[in-house]
Design goal:
There is one protein chain. By secondary structure, the chain is mainly α. The protein has 16 helices and 2 strands. Helices cover about 70% and strands about 0% of the residues. The two termini are about 25 Å apart.
């Protein structure tokens, strides 16, 4: 517990000092990473802890952004004296109210029916938003400017980052407080065995509605922070793509872990900005990552690390050669997939050919078409990686004296 506390303090200190050492562009990227992390944490309260998978959480994220921009417009027109640091509260309150109303109806069903109801609610708002111009701004959306507060002008990415960072920190701390509270235990009990909880006299419907409302409120807070950071929002924030993306973040990290969706959301939000100059196929890579995690680590990437930590504490050590072979195999398969994807994507970009790829030229000394060379290299790398992975898997199967951790997928 002490190590975890020290690690959290180091992360918070790093997030506080890092913006001072990076460019304004990266400061803006870092602010968006924090917003995505808060949104994923709010989603995981419902999907991971309560076991209620929502396919329409973008509705409350977008409602928070629209409400905050409306408050910003009132402050800009001097109709209401709302300090800029308090503007995200408008998104929190509106997200909480809308989510509570929606959750009252959605939680009457469970499983796939609950997911479909949440999707229908989000789609309803997504359709209405571009038509209701006075509230949502129509297809163009809403735009407003941040007003100065005290001696802070909020005119630089650094000032906006610290505003976003403080609110994200408070939001994550609040979610952690809910997780550790008695109510959080009841929420997880609903996921584990709702019928038994109802048998002992607990109103499970009330617990689910409150959890839904809190999750929607924090999602609205994240949307409000995005509105403050970008000073604009439109109906695309209600699209199913936003809901699916936050679900991807949560399940890739692992919904049974509190910090896993938060960290994965921040990482996968920042990576596209860093590699956008090198590839345009990042959505495909994200989809392949999600598919791989669901097939080979259905409890999320953090479950693999947790299982490894458990085996180390139990003094069940894997042979070093097996670890090396497995790692090399995974890296080779990954490299093969990357080469294949880049060969296809660059070969179909107008005006761009594979002659710009120095890697392909280096491994193609003979006169072979670049696309054919790329596919050949991808096949060799993938085949070698799969062979090593299967070999290491057989070696691990032979070690029957190393059982897996009970209840955790290997």
């Amino acid at each position: 517990m002490r190590r975890a506390s020290v690690l959290c303090l180091l992360i918070v200190a790093g997030l506080g000092l890092a913006p001072l050492l990076i460019s304004p562009t990266l400061q803006s990227v870092l602010a968006k990473m924090l917003i995505a992390a808060l949104f994923a944490g709010a989603f995981n309260l419902l999907a991971g802890q309560a076991g209620l998978l929502s396919f329409g959480h973008a509705a409350y994220f977008g409602i928070g952004a629209i409400a905050t921009l409306q408050a910003m417009s009132l402050a800009e027109a001097h109709i209401a004296n709302i300090p800029t640091p308090l503007l995200p509260i408008a998104g929190l309150v509106c997200g909480l109210l809308v989510a509570t109303v929606a959750g009252t109806f959605a939680t009457k069903r469970s499983g796939a029916y609950f997911a479909l109801v949440t999707l229908a609610i989000a789609e309803l708002i997504h359709v209405i938003a571009p038509l209701w111009e006075s509230l949502f701004g129509g297809e163009a959306g809403l735009t407003a400017m941040r007003m100065p507060w005290q001696s802070i002008r909020f005119a630089t990415p650094l000032e906006v980052y610290y505003l976003v960072g403080i609110w994200c920190f408070l939001g994550v701390v609040f979610l952690w407080f809910i997780y550790c509270s008695t109510f959080g235990s009841l929420v997880r009990a609903v996921r584990s065995n709702e019928q038994r909880l109802a048998f002992v006299g607990v109103n499970t419907q009330y617990i689910k509605v409150v959890a839904f409302g809190i999750s929607g409120g924090i999602s609205g807070l994240a949307g409000g922070l995005l509105a403050v950071a970008s000073e604009t929002a439109n109906y695309t924030l209600f699209s199913p793509a936003i809901s699916i993306q936050v679900a991807f973040f949560a399940f890739i990290g692992g919904t049974t872990f509190f910090f896993a969706p938060i960290m994965i959301a921040a990482i996968l939000t920042g990576v596209p900005f860093l590699i956008s100059d090198y590839t345009r196929a990042w959505p495909l890579y994200q989809g392949l990552l999600f598919m791989s995690v669901m097939l080979y680590a259905p409890n999320g990437l953090f479950s693999v690390l947790d299982n490894l930590r458990y085996n180390i504490r139990a003094k069940r050590r894997m042979p070093i050669p097996t670890i090396i072979i497995t790692t090399v195999g995974v890296l080779l398969v990954t490299a093969g997939v990357v080469v294949a994807v880049e060969t296809v994507s660059r070969g179909h970009i107008p005006g761009q050919t594979l002659h710009r790829s120095t890697a392909i030229q280096a491994i193609s000394p003979i006169r072979i078409p670049e696309q054919m060379t790329g596919f050949l290299v991808a096949t060799i790398l993938s085949a070698a990686g799969m062979f090593l992975s299967m070999w290491s898997s057989k070696m691990m199967t032979a070690r029957v004296d190393v059982p897996s951790r009970p209840g955790v997928a290997r």
